[in-house]
């Protein structure tokens, strides 16, 4: 007694067509969670701060502007820095302790609402999660509008003063083996101060002094 076996014929083109349809879907499904999990988010624990100078956390600043044509230059000392002391253990588990950064912009806001950008102090710096690193240099703001006014006979204060400093940095953090991520950060300090001096007929000298807070 013989047995008859039936073999179902499958079109080769149908197999190829079905495989071509399924491969991109499987590849995309596998790649999506991997891509999202491989790149960490930028940390939010790096903030504006003040380095320790002479054993003291300094936030005091002074500047003198010589005015000509109602324009002057206001320079700030290197008292501004990146505070990474709040990053904690969760930060060190993802990123390496040391990081680098580049200052890309520094903007001064005056009490009259006008803003000025510094061409000085824009440079590279380095930090560590356990310290507050100082900015790479002092910021110098030129052509600041300083109108006529001020103390007459030694009485009264000059009215226009700095009120805010905003610094933009591009931070590079290392993680894993040879991997890095770039994180733009905007740091802001509020400036509190007074000014003395006199500007008359577009010329004079103004002395600024105050403190900064974050």
UniProtKB/TrEMBL annotation:
This is Uncharacterized protein. The keyword Signal applies. Residues 1-37 form the signal peptide. It comes from the Bacteria. Keywords: Signal. It comes from Microbacterium azadirachtae. InterPro entries: TAT_signal.
């Amino acid at each position: 007694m013989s047995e008859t076996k039936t073999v179902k014929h499958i079109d080769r083109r149908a197999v190829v067509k079905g495989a071509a349809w399924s491969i991109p879907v499987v590849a995309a499904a596998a790649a999506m969670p991997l891509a999202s999990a491989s790149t960490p988010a930028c940390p939010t624990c790096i903030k504006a701060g003040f380095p320790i100078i002479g054993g003291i956390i300094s936030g005091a600043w002074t500047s003198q502007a010589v005015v000509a044509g109602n324009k002057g230059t206001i320079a700030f000392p290197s008292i501004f820095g990146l505070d990474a002391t709040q990053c904690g253990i969760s930060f060190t588990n993802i990123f390496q302790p040391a990081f680098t950064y580049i200052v890309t912009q520094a903007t001064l806001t005056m009490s009259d609402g006008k803003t000025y950008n510094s061409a000085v102090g824009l440079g590279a710096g380095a930090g560590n999660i356990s310290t507050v690193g100082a900015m790479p240099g002092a910021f110098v703001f030129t052509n600041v509008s300083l109108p006529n006014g001020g103390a007459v006979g030694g009485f009264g204060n000059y009215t226009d003063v700095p009120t805010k400093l905003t610094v933009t940095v591009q931070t590079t953090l290392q993680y894993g083996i040879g991997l890095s991520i770039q994180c733009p950060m905007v740091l802001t300090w509020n400036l509190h101060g007074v000014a003395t001096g006199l500007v008359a007929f577009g010329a004079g000298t103004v002395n600024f002094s105050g403190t900064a807070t974050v």
